[in-house]
Amino acid sequence: MATSPCSSSGVSSSSSSGLGADAGLEIRTRSVEQTLVPLVSQITTLINHKDKPKRSDKTLQAIQRVGQAVNLAVGRFVTVGEAIANENHELKEEMSIACIEARRAGETIAQLTDVASLDHPESDSHITIFTDKTGVVKAARLLLSSVTKVLVLADRIVIKQIITSRNKVLATMEQLEKVSSFQEFVQIFSQFGNEMVEFAHLTGDRQNDLKDEKKKARMAASRAVLEKCTMMLLTASKTCLRHPDCESARINKDGVFHRMRLALEQVIEIVTDSRPNGENEMPPISIYSAIREFKNKVESLRGNLCFLSKENLSTMLEVILEHTEDFTDSAYTSHEHREHILELTKQAKMELEQLVSVWMQAQNQKTKDLMEDLEVAILKTCQCMNELKREVHSAATSLAADLLKYHTDHMVLKALKITGVEGNLEAVAEYTCKLSEQKEQLVEMCRLLRHVSGTEPLEITCIHAEDTFQVTGPQIISAAETLALHPSSKIAKENLEVFCEAWESQLSDMSMLLREINDVFEGRRGEKRVYLSLPRPGKHNANLKALKPVKLDTEEQAKIAKLGLELHLLTSDVDSETEKWEDQENEIVQHGQGMSSMAYSMYLFTRGEGLLKTTQDLFHQAEIFATEGTKLASALHALSAQVHDDDKSLLLLEAEKLISMCKQLQITAKASVQGKSATFTKVDACILKTRNAMTLLCQLLPLCWKLLRKNKAGNGCLKPAPPWREDRIQTGTNAHAPERRAESFGIKSLENHVTNMTFLESK
Questions:
Q1: How confident is the model at residue 92 (pLDDT cuts 50, 70, 90)?
Q2: Does the N terminus or the C terminus of the chain have fewer Cβ atoms within 10 A?
Q3: Which compartments is it annotated to reside in (predicted)?
Q4: C-alpha closest to that of 196 among 219, 229, 221, 218
Q5: Quick one: the chain helix, strand, coil %, rounded to 5?
């Protein structure tokens, strides 16, 4: 099997074939990477056959088929690239050159693999893969490099779309800041809401496509801020318009605008991979990261006694001990935990001193006794580090559990709402002090949790939570002060409610984050939880509530990989067929694309990727796929009424086949199973039935296209198909069909805010 062609710094080479693409082309997204994988696989197959002595007729025919397939695929690919170049003049020259190179390389490979008709390909004057062995490698390298360049250039267009969308949002935000009348605010906010929905869709697609998990986490954090701040911006702006002379209302509104601008800027930093003023991102080092690096260095002494200095190890330990001060100096760390951490830091220094002593002796004299002493010293040093890691984890998580439990009643928030409505400024001041204390506690909790989070994405989530408490606390206070000054104002009351809900939501997210951190620490990392307002398909399905999600192990994943690959190929075929249709709004096309999108997400599941994380997600997706197939069958019945009698029976027969397949899939997906073996059997059956339906769809689409063209030629025109309705959008989500992500990434709630809000309230 071919190795992945991509790495974080560019396109890696294949050791078996010597292939490599331009190392300067960095691949940052899964979609680009996955597009290259099958191409590398095919080319690697050709390269590996060039030196094989045995060449049967069957082998020669297979080589020719692969060469022709590569050339045809590259031809279709280049056609799309050329169309993109014509639509984007700033990239036209680069894209055109890359397309020409790719086409030329594809044709060269086809010529070199034209060997099926030759009895003795190596002795013929015709140049082939066997006579010009370096030529095919050179053509393969050029092909990979040029195709990668086309993909990376196309990816720049996606980045440009996000930047353009961000600029539109910023421009409208500036208008919103300056409005002085409700009527003007209503008009501009309506436009702003639509622009935010578009930005949310674009950035959601990008987030799901990113390879770097740290960038994904940062993008999720920024998008969560934007989602929540959109509602805050609405109520804060309305409050300012209702009470234009209120200083606390102005401070409250300015805080929201400032936070949204920072979040928008961070999104652009992530998608462009840049920092303002050329700064390098320097994330804070956690205790876990420092301990892991220190232990790796200590354990490497077993193989090489001279590769680092004792000063190096001493410095690394000092860094760890400095971080422990975050725990020992914290007012919220228990006395017991503080004492244990201090004891372990002293022990760590002693263990390192003993290790260095034995290590220095072993460098001079490698006796058996000294090497055994060194092994003991290494084990004791690492054991001490493990105990320190366990102690700081216990200190951070027990503090978090206690604080979250203590603040679940939200007593301070409730008191602020009551005293604000009463206009009791003195009581509001008292409770704002209590909220400030609570904020400091929660901020400290986030800082300590970051040290023990265990993974970089979770570290980023902790930093996001800390920022949220830091910012939302003062915003609640300014909103409460505004309400106390205007106790009869309904909009001021609503504004305080919105900020309090954001605080409560973040506390709820912290409970989930704490469980995730404990799971990582204890080695339970199977089912990845999703937070930051990012719901998954199937999350709210009532039929799934009582069922326990199951995640497939590596062996089972491998078993369904073949089925998944077949599903992937079928989605490509369906997409090629739908592209032929002039009327992309046709019901048949829309349902076909919907089914292809969902089948693609199921294919990603077989690879352990995408948004379908558990078997329950897969079963829910299969149900939606079957529903979409049934709708397509209805559209086929409608088409049968518009075609001639000779064709009607064939179309109706195919429609009935599809209905039957979809019913079977629905039954399978809804069937209740227990136990891992039964669950895997159900997964296998769902993917198999989906594959069969997609196979039928591949036959149906060209038939329908042919019938429509035939009838159009014969009758002049067909009856117009009913317009595609918004409610036909399904919740199937994947990188293959970005436009179907309305239910994901919290966009639905944002759309509801925009469409259902009442702006003009006489409050």
A1: confident
A2: N
A3: Cytoplasm
A4: 229
A5: 75, 0, 25
> What backbone phi and psi angles, to 5 degrees, belong to 665?
-65, -40
Beta bridge partners of 210: 29
Is 1.20.120.230 the CATH number for 30-116+131-156?
yes
Q: Say which CATH class 162-272 falls into.
A: mainly alpha
Structure tokens at 269: 């930093």
Q: Output the six-digit token pair for 250.
A: 């102005």
Answer yes or no: are the C-beta atoms of 601 and 621 closer than 8 Å. Answer: yes
Q: Averaged over 630-647, what is the pLDDT?
A: 81
Which residues belong to CATH 1.20.120.330 in the chain?
A: 287-400
What angle do the packed helices 310-328 and 368-406 form, to 10 degrees? 20
The length of the chain is: 763
User: Do the Cβ atoms of 642 and 561 come closer than 8 Å?
Assistant: no
Rounded Cα gap, residues 511 and 755, in angstroms: 31
Query: Model confidence at 714, in pLDDT bands (50, 70, 90)?
Result: low
C-alpha 669/C-alpha 666 separation (Å) is 5
- How far does the chain reach from its first CA to its final CA, in angstroms? 68
Please state, in angstroms and rounded to a whole number, the distance separating the CA atoms of residues 753 and 43: 51
Closest CA to 622 of 563, 561, 684, 560: 684
CA distance 332 to 338: 10
Query: Which CA distances in Å does 79 have to 100, 147, 150, 238, 453?
Result: 10, 12, 11, 51, 47
Distance CA 195, CA 169 (A): 6
* Tens digits of residue pLDDT in 181-237: 988 998 999 899 899 989 998 998 888 888 888 899 999 999 999 989 999 999 999
Residues in contact with 452: Cβ distance below 8 Å, sequence separation at least 6, in sequence order:
286, 287, 288, 389, 392, 393, 396, 397, 517, 521
> Are 485 and 246 spatial neighbours (Cβ–Cβ below 8 Å)?
yes
CATH class of segment(s) 287-400? mainly alpha
Question: What are the helix and strand counts (H, E) for the chain?
Answer: 21, 2
Considering the chain, what is the average pLDDT of its residues? 79
Torsional sign, CA 626, 628, 629, 630: positive
The rounded radius of gyration (Å) of the Cα atoms in the chain is 31
* Beta strand 6-7 pairing with 10-11: antiparallel
Q: What integer pLDDT is reported at residue 6 of this predicted model?
A: 34
Whose CA is closest to 517, among 560, 453, 581, 580? 453
Beta bridge partners of 7: 10
Which segment of 196-210, 347-361, 369-383, 535-549 scores lowest on mean pLDDT? 535-549
The CATH fold of domain 554-712: Four Helix Bundle (Hemerythrin (Met), subunit A) (1.20.120)
Dist CA 562 CA 375 (whole Å): 46
Cross-strand partners of 14 = 19
Structure tokens at 466: 């800390």
CB distance 151 to 36 below 8 Å: yes
**Displacement of CA 279 from its chain's centroid (Å):** 25
d(CA 250, CA 481): 11
Q: pTM here?
A: 0.63
CA dist list (Å): 351 to 316, 354, 363, 390, 754: 14, 5, 18, 17, 61
Q: Write the DSSP assignment of 706-737 as a string of letters.
A: HHHHHHHHHHS--PPPPPPPGGG--S---TT-
Q: CB count, 10 Å around CB of 367?
A: 10
Distance from C-alpha of 219 to C-alpha of 216, rounded to nearest angstrom: 5
- Reported as a pLDDT band with limits 50, 70 and 90, residue 667 is very high
In the chain, CATH 1.20.120.230 covers: 30-116+131-156, 162-272, 554-712
pLDDT tens-digit series, residues 479-501: 999 999 999 999 999 999 999 99
Residue 508 CA, chain-centre distance (Å), reads 22
Q: What are phi and psi of 739, to 5 degrees?
A: -65, -10
